[in-house]
């Protein structure tokens, strides 16, 4: 007789026991705790600033906010910062969009090198950067405040490049370029009619980050001896601290509203894309 070996019974499938269900149930609480801590980190200083600006004499008043426009030097400083933000945005996008697209298409092996290069403005202190620029810049360029726009374009490079990089990674870039060229489209047609519409969210993110940096940068502007909006806030705080804090809170709220607007545009685009033909 031939002995028949016993076949081992298969191990029972794992079932989600009470411990597994408890671990899964505890994860959302951890996330909520982190969100609450970060929310408190941002909202408590904002609440303190609003409370200080809205109660100049111990009673509620909107005088600090309504008096912003008529405050001495506010219009000139804010106008200069807006002009610098516009010029910086144009320079940044004009330099970074073609560079990011070229790296993704032609030099994918060198992407890590470019990521390292673009992070250098975060490593180099702004004081060192502006002192070096003022030392080598020609006199005609130092006599105009738009020298700051060139330096700000360097500062925004890490943020703009990563916004564009994430947008390009989400696209079938080579497929879009090859399809456009096979239909007779040149590089300008491919860039402006194919790639840029698909990079709308990334461009908006890069733009908002650039504007936010320019409206909040203080060190370079004060060393270059130009009264931009952040410099005006510090200088005017010696005369009226309540109006100065109101200006800081207002600029912060405007930046947040712009970022929320970007997220809403992205969400709306994400919902409408599947239905498009």
Secondary structure topology:
Layout: H1 18-54, H2 63-66, H3 74-106, H4 111-118, H5 120-123, H6 126-136, H7 139-142, H8 147-155, H9 157-169, H10 173-182, H11 187-198, H12 200-216, H13 219-223, H14 229-236, H15 241-272
Helix pairs in contact: 1-15, 3-8, 3-9, 3-12, 3-14, 9-12, 10-11, 12-15, 14-15
Which fold name is given in CATH as the topology?
MetI-like fold
The residue-averaged pLDDT reads 82
Gross morphology is: globular
So how many helices? 15
> Order of helices and strands, N to C?
HHHHHHHHHHHHHHH
Q: For the report, how would you describe the main beta sheet?
A: none
For the secondary structure, the number of strands is 0
Proportion of residues in extended strands: under 5%
Q: End-to-end distance, in Å?
A: 72 Å
Rg calculated over all Cα atoms: 27 Å
- Stretches where pLDDT is under 50 for at least 5 consecutive residues are 1-9
CATH class: Mainly Alpha
Structural class comes to mainly alpha
The CATH architecture can be given as: Orthogonal Bundle
What's the CATH H-level superfamily name? MetI-like
- Fraction in helix: over 70%
Question: How many separate domains?
Answer: 1
Please explain how this structure is put together.
The structure is a single chain. The chain is mainly alpha-helical and 277 residues long. It has a single domain, classed as Orthogonal Bundle (MetI-like fold). Helices cover 75% and strands 0% of the residues. It contains 15 helices and no strands. Helix 3 packs across helix 9, helix 10 packs across helix 11 and helix 14 packs antiparallel against helix 15. The longest helix has 37 residues. The relative contact order is 0.11.
